[in-house]
Amino acid sequence: MKELELKYGCNPNQKPSKIYMKDGELPIEVLNGKPGYINFLDAFNGWQLVKELKKATGLPAAASFKHVSPAGAAVGLSLNEVERKIYWVDDMSELSPLASAYARARGADRMSSFGDFIALSDVCDVDTAKLIKREVSDGIIAPGYEPEALELLKAKKKGNYAVIQIDPAYVPNPVETKDVYGITFEQGRNELVIDDALFANVVTENKEIPEQAKIDLAIAMITLKYTQSNSVCYVKGGQAIGIGAGQQSRIHCTRLAGNKADNWFLRQNPKVLNLPFKDKIGRADRDNTIDVYMSDDYMDVLADGTWENFFTEKPEVLTREEKRAWLDQMTDVALGSDAFFPFGDNVERAHRSGVKYIAQPGGSIRDDNVIETCNKYGMAMCFTGIRLFHH
Asked: Which DSSP category does 230 fall into?
């Protein structure tokens, strides 16, 4: 197949629409549903991300994409009991490594992942398909599907769930183009290999970056490679826990990603874990309610006459002081930035979310101030010398 006609482009008024190859055959096969223009953008960006994560770590990888940026990305490490609970998989048996990767990718920012497009590095197994079947999702791309897994996925969305199979041996042209306003842009593909060598230039007093931190930094940088810039990514234990995408200001990026990382950790607070939800409350409504409960707008779900809609009894408020004390326990977080930090305020904000390891290009006229701020908190920061803008 050389081309595939689509229903429309980014919006219903943008017709005609298709994807096609200038040379050769399309490296994909649509096994079910009718993926759209944005679905394919998410699918192809997501596939590149998980393929690189697998290559860098040797572990199965998954990504949850929304609007051409990842909401979450992770590798297939086993889940502890708290993680199983906050990702809503505590009722399932032990998950396969690939299913664990998707549970982590989906669970990092469940609000943003609602209606996601999924990318998997490996053949989709039954465990992963069972997990996906319960979530609100638009589609999936993977290098293959176990027969039973494929049947489970085909049953989603009344049979309309988009299932794409990609040829894992496909190698794209090293030069890429796109048109904007009738004008063609051309550039070499970003073929940068992200490995330990990228983190060798440690510029802070603390020079110690342990192996797990290097893995987390690699996950952060690979994730940023496929995230709309400006972008910052917080990673802990093999998964992105906060991604800030598409912000014009880097400090806003750092704050946005940091707030998401904070929410990921706050979900593990006993008050949040033990919220007395009514049995009839669906998973998406639980996610929304938890998000409000953890915010400064908690009275939107705790006010008399309202809490009764969600809970069997009125929960106690999770106070600002309790939240801060809980967040102070979060440690050993890795942070990547797709471009240099222009001010030390980014490091100050990162510190409040437990960041201990940072990778960024360096090259700001205020590098000394950024390094000094890292030294104040005993952080280890490396300069990669490489910018990772993605547009």
From this structure: S
Please tell me whether residue 336 adopts helix, strand or coil conformation. Answer: strand
Per-residue pLDDT tens digits for 233-288: 999 999 999 999 999 999 999 999 999 999 999 999 999 999 999 999 988 899 99
Q: Which CATH number fits domain 190-266+327-383: 3.40.140.20, 1.10.10.60, 3.40.190.150, 3.40.47.10?
A: 3.40.140.20
Residue indicated by tokens 């949040």:
272
Give the count of beta carbons closer than 10 Å to the beta carbon of residue 182.
5
- In the block, tokens 């939240």 appear at 323
The model's pTM: 0.96
Q: Which residues are catalytic?
A: 66-67, 230, 391
Q: Tally the C-alpha atoms within 13 A of residue 38's C-alpha that lie toward its C-beta.
A: 13
Q: Which residues partner with 120 through β-bridges?
A: 62
- Pick the closest to residue 60 from 94, 109, 96 (CA basis): 96
Q: Is 70 strand, coil or helix?
A: strand
